[in-house]
């Protein structure tokens, strides 16, 4: 079926120009390391080239074969972009085998059968199958709205290919001559659907990639890489957001592993890292749901418990201390007990930042270290001893009461 427009019509220039611009944008983002993969840029660049070759290359057989190969290359790259975006296995071997089988069939249909209808059927079906395969794999992984939009627009591109294949192969009397392609109704339909519905695909891919990049950078700025806990800045932001910048209430725990240099020096830095991760896990398990737990640096951690009394905070710190002290580190080669000391302080009425409470908890921690380590210390303990609730695993607590100057005044033992 021929359409009387001719390849000189301006509309045929629009898809290669639009996809060329999108490809440049993606390649620039990849160069700037905003998107980790080059596949989107390569996919859109191939789509742009595919339109130029199929419509404007004068050598018909070469145009049919080359454009068929370029479009399957684009489908491969889109699939890689999707699989990497959703952190799925890239299925490289299987998908490359599909491309190899497709290439052989394309060469046969173009150079042996010399059938335009069969070549277009294969190109569309191959494109839809290869891209649809990746969409199928990633579909259940999409949860953010922009990721769902990316899956939906990818589906639209697949459906567009399938619909066109079925329509032009089975319901129209299309010309089978390669020289008729540039002026065919098929070529016009591809051009129009590409300019309209299919253009949503690159823009959602762009938005999804940008959203993922922003989230990656936010995580890097707010989270500690070794433990996944908040870092100092992330903790500040979380506390400020929760309190709306107003006065804070609650208690604060600062904890530090005892004689950690010895762990590093004896068992190596990697073993030390695992011990730090172990403490982070315990903090998250025991305190995580009740407040904000952060690694402030080295092997020093801070936990802010909004609306908790010092007694409750001391009880939790004591639970942490005892659970950590009985942990078995032999599986990572550390053959002695590792303990932790904690300092606890309330946030004073009217305080809008944690700075002063951290200073007070720090001096309590210092006193706990001086008093022999492996203990919880607080200046405010005398008034709250009755409140201290111990977990079923830690029926005995050794708590250090500090005087006004911050030095140890009394060792309090609680046995319940
Ligand atoms: P203390 O009982 O007084 O706390 O003694 P300590 O040996 O634990 O002394 P300190 O808390 O000052 O030790 C901090 C050590 O932690 C020094 C540093 O080499 C080590 N460290 C800091 N960050 C890391 C890390 O990310 N991984 C490992 N493995 N070690 C770290
Ligand atoms: Mg230490
Ligand atoms: Mg330290």
Describe this structure in words.
The protein has helices at 14-31, 39-56, 60-85, 92-113, 116-138, 145-170, 185-195, 200-222, 232-243, 260-267, 269-287, 310-325, 355-370; strands at 250-257, 292-297, 300-306, 340-346, 376-378, 396-402, 408-415. By secondary structure, it is of the alpha/beta class. Helix 1 (14-31) packs antiparallel against helix 2 (39-56), helix 5 (116-138) packs antiparallel against helix 6 and helix 6 packs antiparallel against helix 8 (200-222). The structure holds 3'-deoxy-guanosine-5'-triphosphate and magnesium ion (2 copies).
Entry keywords:
Alpha-Beta Plaits; alpha/beta; binds 3'-deoxy-guanosine-5'-triphosphate; binds magnesium ion; seven-stranded mixed beta sheet; disordered N terminus; 416 residues; 57% helix; 2 domains; 13 helices; single chain
Low-confidence stretches: 1-5
Biggest pleated sheet: 7 strands, mixed
| Proportion of residues in extended strands | 5-15%
Query: How many DSSP helices?
Result: 13
* Helix/sheet category: alpha/beta
Distance between the termini: 90 Å
What spatial order of strands do you see in the largest sheet? Answer: 2-3-1-4-5-6-7
Determine the fraction of residues in helical runs and give it as a percent range: 55-70%
Computed CA radius of gyration, to the nearest angstrom: 32 Å
Q: What overall geometry do the principal axes of the alpha carbons give? A: elongated
What is the succession of H and E elements? Answer: HHHHHHHHHEHHEEHEHEEE
User: Could you say how many structural domains there are in total?
Assistant: 2
Q: Would you count the extended β strands for me?
A: 7
Bound molecules: 3'-deoxy-guanosine-5'-triphosphate, magnesium ion
Mean pLDDT: 86
């Amino acid at each position: 079926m021929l359409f009387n427009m001719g390849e000189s019509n301006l509309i045929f220039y629009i898809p290669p120009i639009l996809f060329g611009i999108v490809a440049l944008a993606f390649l620039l983002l990849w160069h700037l390391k905003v998107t980790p993969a080059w596949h989107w840029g390569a996919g859109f660049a191939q789509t742009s080239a595919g339109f130029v070759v199929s419509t404007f290359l004068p050598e018909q057989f070469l145009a049919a074969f080359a454009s068929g190969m370029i479009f399957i290359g684009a489908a491969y790259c889109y699939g890689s972009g999707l699989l990497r975006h959703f952190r799925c296995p890239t299925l490289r071997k299987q998908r490359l085998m599909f491309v190899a089988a497709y290439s052989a069939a394309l060469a046969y249909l173009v150079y042996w059968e010399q059938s335009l209808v069969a070549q277009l059927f294969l190109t569309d079906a191959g494109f839809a199958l290869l891209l649809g395969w990746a969409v199928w794999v990633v579909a259940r992984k999409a949860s953010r709205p922009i990721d769902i939009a990316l899956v939906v627009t990818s589906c639209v591109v697949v459906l567009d290919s399938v619909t066109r294949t079925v329509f032009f192969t089975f319901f129209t009397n299309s010309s089978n001559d390669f020289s008729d392609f540039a002026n065919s109704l098929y070529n016009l339909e591809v051009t129009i659907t590409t300019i309209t519905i299919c253009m949503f695909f690159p823009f959602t891919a762009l938005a999804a990639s940008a959203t993922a990049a922003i989230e990656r950078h936010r995580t890097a700025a707010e989270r500690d890489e070794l433990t996944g806990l908040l870092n100092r800045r992330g903790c500040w932001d979380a506390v400020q957001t929760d309190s709306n910048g107003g006065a804070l209430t609650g208690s604060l725990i600062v904890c530090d592993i005892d004689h950690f240099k010895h762990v590093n020096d004896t068992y190596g830095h990697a073993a030390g890292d695992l011990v730090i991760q172990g403490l982070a896990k315990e903090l998250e398990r025991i305190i995580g749901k009740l407040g904000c737990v952060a690694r402030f640096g080295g092997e020093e951690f801070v936990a802010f418990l909004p609306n908790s009394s010092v007694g409750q905070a001391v009880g939790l710190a004591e639970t942490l201390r005892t659970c950590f002290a009985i942990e078995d580190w032999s599986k990572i080669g550390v053959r002695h007990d590792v303990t932790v000391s904690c300092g606890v302080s309330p946030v004073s009425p009217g305080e809008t930042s944690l700075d002063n409470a951290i200073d007070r908890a720090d001096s309590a921690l210092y006193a706990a270290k001086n008093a022999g380590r492996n203990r919880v210390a607080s200046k405010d303990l005398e008034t709250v001893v009755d409140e201290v609730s111990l977990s079923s695993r830690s029926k005995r607590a050794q708590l250090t009461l500090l005087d006004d100057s911050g030095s140890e005044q009394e060792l309090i033992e609680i046995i319940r």
